[in-house]
Amino acid sequence: MKCTICPNNCNIDRNEQKGACGVGNDILISKYYLHPFEEPVISGTKGSGTVFFSGCSLKCVYCQNYELSRAKRGKIVTPSELADIFKTLEDAGASNINLVTPTHYITGIVKAFELYRPNIPVVYNTHGYETLDGLKIIAPYVDIYLPDLKFCSSEVSLKYTGKKDYFSVATNAISYMLESKKTVIENGLMKSGVIVRHLILPENVSDSKRVIDWFAKNQKNGAYLSIMAQYTPFGSIELFPELKRKITKKEYDRVLEYAQLSGVENAFVQDLTSSSEEFIPKWDF
Ligand code: SF4
Q1: pTM
Q2: Atom of ligand 1 nearest to the CA of 10
Q3: From the CB of 246, is ligand 1 less than 6 Å away?
Q4: pLDDT digits (tens, 9 = 90+) for 79-130
Q5: 5 Cβ inside 6 Å of ligand 1
C-alpha cells in the first residue's frame, strides 16, 4: 500500500523505500519511560508513560530530539512488542501512554492498540502537521491531543521546516482535535482534552503573538495553551545564527504578557529555567 498518511503525501510503498519521514514500515523507537517533565496534568506524580518514535514527517532544523527525528537511532519493535511496552508502562504506574511523534506510524500503532488497549488515557503528542484522514484512523484510541502549534508565518515555517503550509495544515488538524475532545481533569490528571503547545523561539516574538491570537480565538471545550520556554540550540542550525542562543527573559516576558491580555482562558507556562539540555532525555536505543 502506498503511504499518504501525512501531508507529505509521498505515495510510496514503505516496504520498499523510506518516505520524507525517513523511515520505512518497521516501527522504530528510541526510548520508553516514565517522563516527569510534561505538563503537570500529563506527568502527574509518577510520570507520563512516554514512547519516543524515531523519524519525523516535519523535521524542524532546531529539533530538540534531533537524532530521533532524523532516524539516526532507534530499535525496531513489532506491534505486539509495542503493545507489551504499553502494558509495561501502565503496570509501572504511568499516568497515561504518551505517543511522541507518532504520525508516520499511525497504522502500526493502531495494530498495537488492537492487541492491547491500555486502561489509562492515551496521549497523541504531535508536531501538528497532520492529515484529517490520518487522525481519524487513530482517533478511536486517543483520549488527549497534545499538538504543537509552532509557527503562524509561512516564511518562518518554510525557513525552519521547508513547509510553507504548516499553519493552515496544523490549524485544520488542531480545530478537529478541539472539536472532538472536552477537557476532563480528575485529581490533577487530564483524562481527556487538548493541550496546544507553543515553543517560544529566539527572534520570533511576533510569530508567537500570532499563534496566541489564533488559540484565543479558537479555544474550545476547556482546551489549554502550553507556552514552552525550553528552547535549547540544537540540531542543524548552522545557517540560522538567530537559533544559536536560548530565548531571553525579555522575549519570554513579552510573550507571557501578551498571552495574559489575549483572552486565553486556560494556560500552562513553562519556567524559563527549563531551557537546558537536562530536559532532553537520554536515548536508550
Ligand atoms: S508518513 Fe512518511 S512516507 Fe508516509 S506520507 Fe508521510 S512522510 Fe511520506
Answers
A1: 0.96
A2: 8
A3: no
A4: 999 999 999 999 999 999 999 999 999 999 999 999 999 999 999 999 999 9
A5: yes
Query: Which of 141, 160, 133 lies closest to 69, judged by CA?
Result: 160
Our answer on whether the CB atom of 21 is closer than 6 Å to any ligand 1 atom is yes
- Of 14, 195, 197, 166, nearest to 104 by C-alpha is 14
Whether residue 20 has its Cβ less than 6 Å from ligand 1: yes
- Which residue type sits at 199? L
Q: How confident is the model at residue 280 (pLDDT cuts 50, 70, 90)?
A: low
Angle, helices 166-180 vs 154-161, to 10°: value is 100
CATH of domain 21-279: 3.20.20.70
Q: Where are the alpha helices (DSSP H) in the chain?
A: 40-43, 66-69, 79-91, 106-115, 132-138, 154-161, 166-180, 205-218, 249-261
Gap between the Cα atoms of 42 and 33, Å rounded: 14
Give the helix/strand (H/E) hosting 225: strand 224-228
Q: What is the DSSP letter of 246?
A: P
Q: What are 105's three cell numbers?
A: 506510524
Residue 191 has pLDDT above 70, yes or no: yes
Task: Please write the tens of the pLDDT for every residue from 32-60.
Answer: 999 998 999 999 999 999 999 999 999 99
**Per-residue model confidence as pLDDT tens digits over 135-166:** 999 999 999 999 999 999 999 999 999 999 99
Q: What is the dihedral of CA 176, 180, 185, 190, to 10 degrees?
A: -60
